[in-house]
Amino acid sequence: MENKNTDVKFEDLVRRNFNPEEDNIIATDVSYIPADAAENFAYLSIAISHKTKMIESWKLSQSNNVQLVLDTIDGLKRKNFIFHSDHGFQYSSYKVLDRLKTINAKTSMGRVGNSLDNREAEYFFGCLKGEYLNQLATTKMKFDEIYKCISEYIEWYNFKRKQKVLNWKTPASASAINS
Fold first, then answer.
1. In terms of CB atoms within 10 Å, which end of the chain has fewer, N or C?
2. Domains in the chain, CATH or no CATH each
């Protein structure tokens, strides 16, 4: 079961702006992947650019916790951006909010129950599962095997998967243009 913290109120700074002029919005989310693991799941946390659709950081864990999100944030190589999420308990934790302050990131959250407010992250998870993971028997795969598969998919997604929204460029080539 997902834990949502609906008591905290953060402004939605993104307001469904999926094609911003500036590359300053990073969407994030955690998704469950059925696995042969302690909790029957592996948990994938991603950080994706709204502008370039590039997966800029990702972590896979056997626990869905604050440390998973902190590790994802630590993988980002940027400062001064909007960090947009849903109301998952991790994103409103003091540890995550403090870490975001150290890199001058502004916290933004979509409206409760509106998954389309976090479309970029949700779209990526849909691609990952629909194009790839659903073809594999992840429930019979060990954590390390799933990690390897996700790593290969993200490499392909960032550097080879052309997207119509990017004028048939890959996220990596769109990212190079915006650098």
1. N
2. 25-177 (3.30.420.10)
Interior angle at CA 165, CA 87 and CA 51, nearest 5: 50
Coil vs helix vs strand at 102? helix
Angstrom distance (rounded) from CA 38 to CA 141: 12
**How far is 122 from 31, CA to CA, in rounded Å?**
9
Contact between 136 and 152 under an 8 Å Cβ cutoff? The reply is: no
Question: Model pTM?
Answer: 0.90
- pLDDT by residue, tens only, the chain of 179 residues: 455 555 567 777 777 656 667 778 999 999 999 998 888 899 999 999 999 999 999 999 999 999 999 999 999 999 999 999 988 889 989 999 999 999 999 998 876 655 556 788 999 999 999 999 999 999 999 999 999 999 999 999 999 999 999 999 999 998 887 76
Structure tokens at 45: 């946390």
- The answer to whether 75 and 56 have CB atoms below 8 angstroms apart is yes
With CA atoms as reference, report the closest residue to 41 among 155, 130, 133, 113. Answer: 133
